[in-house]
Amino acid sequence: MHVFRVFHGPIELAGQMGRLVGGLRQFGHQAIGFNTFQSYLGYRNNIINTDWYDMIRQFDALKDQFDIFHFHFNGTLFEDARDLKELHALGKKFVMHHWGNDVRFKAKAAQLSPYLYDLCNPFTDEEIAARLARNSQYIKTAIIQDLELLPYVLGHYTYVYVLPLAFDVTGTIPQYPRVDTRVPLIIHAPTQPTFKGTVYVEDAIQRLRQAGFQFDYKRIEFMSNAEALSYYRQADIVIDQLLVGTYGLFAVEAMALGKPVISYLREDLVSTYPANLPIINANPTTLYNTLIPLITDPLLRHTTGIKSRQYAEQRHDIPMIIPQLLEIYKVVMST
């Protein structure tokens, strides 16, 4: 077996870099992850939390130790990307993993999604374009989580691969909604409320309460991972995001737990997902009516939760993801 030696960095988002690094190690490969983006979520698994200065200080050691540099979020080791020229001269191979707002141009996003009015984006369209142009001089391969991001990266790379979000589904014990629960718990966990469509979620919740439907609602934010997970496990219905047009990691985690999940899937993307995708499609205008059968039918919640778990096992479990990533690396090493 050929052993890949892979560097991941410089930004960890939603625990994905750590899961990929850990998965590569489980499959017998050498991998390391450096994260310079420190958030309140405090990701630690399989990554080294550091800063730009320390990462740059270790550049000479890193360039000698690794063959593939798998970058994330449109960043490289140096802010000005001068590392790419030196690494390229040494014959190193590159992958750029895009996660969303690192490439979502505001103008294009407005054309593609009728609901996405605030990207919560740290970059301007001009900055995104400049980074893409600079990096793609040397990086010819990109990875995206699904085809929602394809319009933003087309024309910048020779190869674009879809690699689904990774999650430890096998290590997650499902807790399906009980069929004897008459007052279901609905949860929504907005890391960025204006990006997730929280105002529409809570408007629908308020109207449903006024209409006399019986349920509990909890907005998950500003709490520890352990406390948040306790609510995830108790939940009967999970609302992910209503504006972007695809589902995110919160939906994957909820499906792994065996929960019915609501998210907005853009109409032109629905056919690009596997046929057994159990996500319940709703947008800001349809959420109210979409929630009613789930609130009133415990059996529907339970059976949908079973389908969610099955889909997560087949689509997002780390042992399903890593072989796909290794196939990408094989192509990268041969080109």
Explain what the structure shows.
There is one protein chain. The model has no long low-confidence stretch (mean pLDDT 95). Helix 1 (16-26) crosses helix 14 (318-334) and helix 11 (249-256) crosses helix 13. The protein has a seven-stranded parallel beta sheet with strand order 3-2-1-4-5-6-7, with helices on one face. Strands 9-8-10-11-12 form a five-stranded parallel beta sheet, sandwiched between helices. It is globular, with a radius of gyration of 21 Å. The protein has helices spanning 16-26, 52-57, 59-65, 82-89, 106-112, 125-135, 150-153, 193-196, 198-210, 225-234, 249-256, 287-296, 298-315, 318-334, and strands at 5-9, 30-35, 48-49, 68-72, 93-97, 141-144, 159-162, 185-188, 216-219, 237-239, 261-263, 280-281. The chain has 14 helices and twelve strands. It has 335 residues and is an alpha/beta fold. Strand 1, helix 1 and strand 2 (30-35) form a beta-alpha-beta unit. It folds into two domains: 5-168 and 317-334, Glycogen Phosphorylase B (Rossmann fold), CATH 3.40.50.2000; 185-315, Rossmann fold (3-Layer(aba) Sandwich). It starts with a strand and ends with a helix.
